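User: For my dataset I need records formatted as: sequence, then structure tokens, nothing else. Please produce one.
Assistant:
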Amino acid sequence: MKSFFIGILLFVSAACCFAADNLGALLNQLDQTIAQRQTYTDIREHRILELKQMLKTPNISDGQTYELNTRLYSEYKTYNCDSAFYHAENALRIAELLGKEHFINEAKLNKISVFNVIGMYKEALDLLQSINKNVLSNELKIKYFNIQKEVYSNYSNNNVYAVEYKKISDNYRDSLLNLLDKNSEHYLIVYSEKLLEAGRVDEASEILFGLLKAVEPENHLFAVLTYGIADVFLAKGDKEKAKIYCAKSAAADLKNAIKENASMQALALLLYESGDLKHAYKYIKYSLEDAVFCNARLRTFEISRIFPIIDDAYQEKTQKQKKQLTFYLVLTAILSFFLIIAVAYVYKQMKKLSKARKELSNINLQLNGLNSQLQNYNKELSEANHIKEEYIGHFLDLCSAYIDKLEDYRKTLHRKAADSKIDELFKMLKSTEMVDKEVTELYQNFDKIFLSLFPTFIEDFNTLMLPEEHFVRKQGELLSVEMRICALIRLGITDSSKIAKFLRYSSNTIYNYRAKIKTKASVPREDFEKTIMKIGSFGK
């Protein structure tokens, strides 16, 4: 479990390191910082305002005024050179009034530092000659050598005496290194610069990375160190890493509201060389805005040489993208036109198809109706055939039975006649007992056969009658006369005379029975017999 958590920790750490050194992520963070730069500017402006308010304090001493102007110079130096120059001059004027040599030399060095930033190198060198370095304190001497180094280094740019001025700058750098504490950050930064120029890149890198570990990303020193590391990677030929550290340096400068900076300018140039014109144009534009705001003439001059190149490339790419966009818009319009035609055609076809489906649906409904009718007809035909089969079978059985009975009756009569039992013979011939018995048996057989075909007939029949008119069978009776009449109607025998003949009643009697049944029905009279025809299904 312990090794698992260690593995997770290492993975997270690796992910964080990857995110921190991912150029795309860093550029996104830089864009966000640029979007918030007014916030950082407001913080610096607030500090400046507080110092200016302190200057307005009544009965303030000249010494305090000098100190406040010096602090305002420091706030303005990398922010606004004009204001920095104004407060440096104020400090020099007050120092001269006080007659304090230390303050005078400090104010002069501050003024020279502004001259250096705005590119007034002759004025800077002239003022430097007025300073006796031998009387300077150790702190001011460090500042003196540092300014000399920077002035001659900047002056060597685009100058016919570049090599000579660069040697002078290097000599002042050596003097500065001899004066600085070898364990101080200042010494290590200047020494790494010397190592880098000497081609000792790995040693310079080791020093700068060692210093970077102890610095917060929001600190101005972080911007200085990361810019130096970017130079290290450029010396190694690793432009991708150089972009990463230029981006980090530029972000730190923005967070400190430093308008005089080189990192964003360097980043813009590197991105331009790699083809990222969008970011290159954006960053060089912001660099120019900051340089103009700060009135850093050297920085403005450097950017003005690069800006047209990046701007032209960016505008060319923008024009190309516009042409591509126009082409795609025209192509999209053409495709949209054909799409509209296609949609209209499909819509028209869908309407035709919908109409055809409706017609087909109607035809299917008609076919379903016809099929239903056909099924009903087939059912009725099947039912009729079944009834015929049942009744033909029973009819043949009855006929055979009646023939046997007639033969028995004939034999009985013959015996009576042969035995000369004339009285008994006449008595038998006059009696209706046999006929009544056969009629009763005929109706019983009819009832049995019918109920075997329609087992639920009695219940179904009663559902058609009013509740109080339900027919109740007598004991030993299968069907009553009324039910028997309706049974014959269910079998398709609707003629009253035929029903009367079968039931051995007169036609009027049958007619009255039928009328009486209809008055007891719960369905309309005209629909009663049609409803009877629909009762039940025949038995299996």
